[in-house]
Amino acid sequence: GESFYGIKISLEDVAPITTPNAIVNYEYAFKKLNEEIGQLKKKYLELPKKLEGELNRIKNRNQPQISKLKDSIRNTEYQIRQTKLKARQASVDLNDLVEKAKTEQQHALKKVKEAIENAKEQEIDAKNKIGEIEKQIKRKIKTKERERDNKITEAQNQVATQTKQIEAEIAARKNAFARRKEEVALQKNQELGNKGADTDRLGAIDKLLSKIATELTFIEENRDTVVEYKKDKRELFDRVKEFKNENQLLKQKLEQEKQKYNRLEHSLKEELEVIKNSIKDIESRLRNIKEDLAEFSRFKSSEVYQSIESFMTDSDENYKTNQRCKLIIEDINRAYYQKITQETQLKEDINKFLGNFSEQNLFNFRTNLITIDEYMDSSEKLMDFIEEDKIAEFEKRVYERFANIVTAIGKETTELISKTGEIQTIVRKINNDFMERNFVGAVKKIELRVDESANNVVVVLKLIKEFNDENALDLGEATLFSTPNREASNKKAIELLKQLVKEIDNYKKDDVSLSDSFELKFRVEENQNNTGWVEKLSNVGSDGTDVLVKAMVNIMLLNVFKKGASKRFKDFRLHCMMDEIGRLHPSNVKGILKFANDRNILLINGSPIESTPLNYKHIYKIEKDSASITKVKRIVSNFN
User: Where along the chain do its domains lie?
Assistant: First the structure.
């Protein structure tokens, strides 16, 4: 830069170093650089020829494969033409299928209507037959039930009537017999008593006879009932088994009739279900045909159909199919949009890939692609590039180039950091200078130190330099001296170069100066205050002390550089403008002036405020006249 730690230095009047050895070194370095420039120009001019030769060699080597690919392209074009013919045939087949579907639809509808009419007639006949059978069975059942009920009612009525008559007659006879019995018994007992008979014994016998007579009477009275019972038993009760057998036979017949009915009903239902299924199948086919026709009508107005319309003129028996037209259209749409998606993805992938290359890239990849044919051609070339392993050839060229770059960076970095010893010497002289001529009692020590640079670019440059020193034989192409780690070393070198490029972009400067290769740190002890090692001096003490310390450091730096630049002159003096001198204590103003004058550095106080004028040798007044011309007038000079 134009300043050194805030102090501008003009070296226009300083003569350059013209020692014989330095001149010889410069001439040798200049000659060597010219030779290197000539070699680089020669290599640069040879690169197009070399590249053209490489391309011709690659072309000749790949000519058989190119021929095969051309044959493959011709075969593919033939297949495309055949596919177009087949697509046209498919279109014709589709139209035929539509017409055939319409005809089949009409015939199917006619058959369905006839089948429905027949099924309805059969269903009516079956229902009529079933109704007649059910009526006959019901009539027989009702007849038998009526006969049974009539017989039971008749028998019950007869029994009830006879029972009433018998009961009435029995009651009358009982009453008469009881009266008569009482009369006879009374007479009998009187007569027998008169004759001296045993009336008690006779009473017992009478009771027994009465009991027997009662039983005989009961038997006689119920004889008709027994006869009727026997008749009923003979006609009814004894025939219970017969009635049960007849009932069982009737039930069996009824069950057989029901089974016949169920079989007939099941058969008719199966036939009806078959007819319904046939109707559903035909209706489903009709719906499918209508849907296919509607879908094809919509499809004809789409961009997909327009893209394949040229293929829809001819037909081919090999491409006939039973698949629905709707499904075929869905497959065509899916394939069409999948093709668009794949083309879009291909464009994105290729653009993303080509985004890593400039238009004049090393691989001659086209970067300004527009049409899909250009993208397809680019992808095929990229496939050839990968399959033929062309990257290995370019890798070989890149290795040659970056090996030279790494070597050059290592050499320049070595030259850059070789000045570290000289810088350490300068710092040591500055530290010694302060110890010898310190005039400020409050400042006990001012010390400088050189540390490793924290600049990221310099750090990476040093890493590259160290890597080049350790792996010089492994960089670039394989040689007799290469080690098995050559590939890893090359990859590491590329990573370091990438890191360097990244740090240079972040650095945002065009070059790296010597001051970037190290960190200059200061440490000041002032009374009880120790700043520690810092890059900038601040808060050493009061404002005046800060200005004083900074001025002393800058004067010591100027003195060291002045000595290096003034070897031709024994009495070499340097004039410097000092700012902010008004902040110094008056006792320190004279001291800092003497501190600088002892080193042949003359300070100029540019402050407009006058203070301690006797400390200066000359006092000037600077002003502009009416013509804006600056004039300098000497006011006071002190020659003591």
Answer: 1-62, 65-282, 321-387, 412-541, 543-640
